[in-house]
């Protein structure tokens, strides 16, 4: 069975707009797949992610000093086992929420490894319409560094204009995004590299190679996983066995 991983960076719990928006899409995906998909949904109400200590241990050793003290290990396992990833956040102060940033901070070391290479992903936000492009672009950038291909990114306004509560407007959006997820889950659509993924891959390769004389965790990961041998990110994606 295919797996969808979701992280929603909202404190709103069941009343979160972002969770509601995401669930509308996921309900439709469940219909399209005949419920033949696992959804692993995490948010600050059902999981705990501690703030990064800033010690840089993860970059050098692959180990975090907070390991085992919160739910991040389980969340990382679910991400690695997923076939599609959705990251959703309310827009706060014209950017992602603090909870979403804590999530990214704790997996920043994966950005040097492009650890989620080849997985399709979607970025969702809800807001009152301020700072939307900046936030969606930021999400796209962070996701690309993780190796994710952002196949769609979308904001639903809660008012001015009122989109989230406009059933006609939402139906069209929900149909569109659920169909895209369905096509990636069933293999009708396949992830393709793009200019920004290629740029991140080539500059990261050059930077990590500099550790050759005193190999650290990142260098060993690139070597063990034969990332240095891949001429392009597209080449890397094509070499990943299908789950
Ligand atoms: C502290 C705070 C800051 C916010 N900042 C913005 C903002 O900069 N731009 C915007 O469009 N909406 C902003 N909003 C509105 C939220 O993005 C909006 O209500 C969102 O749908 C909340 O999502 P949630 O219910 O999933 O937490 C802010 C809300 C709060 C509570």
TrEMBL record:
Tree of life domain: Bacteria
Record keywords: Flavoprotein, FMN
Organism: Clostridium saccharobutylicum DSM 13864
Protein name: NADPH-dependent FMN reductase
A GO molecular-function annotation: oxidoreductase activity
Domain NADPH-dependent FMN reductase-like: 17-153
């Amino acid at each position: 069975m295919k797996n969808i991983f979701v992280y929603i960076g909202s404190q709103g719990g069941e009343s979160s707009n972002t969770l509601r928006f995401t669930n509308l899409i996921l309900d439709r995906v469940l219909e399209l797949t005949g419920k033949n998909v696992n959804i692993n949904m995490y948010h600050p109400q059902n999981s705990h992610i501690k703030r990064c200590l800033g010690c840089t241990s993860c970059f050098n050793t692959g180990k975090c000093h907070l390991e085992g003290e919160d739910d991040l290990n389980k969340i990382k396992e679910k991400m690695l086992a997923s076939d599609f990833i959705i990251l959703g956040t309310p827009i706060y102060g014209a950017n992602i929420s603090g909870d979403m940033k804590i999530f990214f901070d704790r997996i920043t070391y994966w950005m040097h490894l492009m650890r989620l290479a080849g997985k399709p992903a979607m970025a969702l936000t809800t807001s009152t319409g301020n700072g939307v492009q900046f936030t969606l672009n930021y999400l796209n950038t962070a996701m690309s560094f993780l190796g994710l291909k952002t196949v769609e990114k979308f904001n639903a306004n809660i008012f001015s204009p009122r989109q989230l509560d406009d059933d006609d407007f939402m139906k069209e959006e929900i149909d569109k995004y659920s169909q895209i997820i369905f096509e990636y889950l069933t293999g009708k659509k396949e992830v393709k590299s793009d200019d920004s993924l290629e740029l991140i891959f080539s500059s990261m390769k050059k930077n990590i190679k500099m550790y050759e004389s005193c190999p650290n965790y990142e260098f060993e990961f690139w070597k063990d996983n034969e990332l240095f041998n891949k001429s392009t990110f597209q080449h890397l994606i094509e070499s990943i066995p299908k789950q």
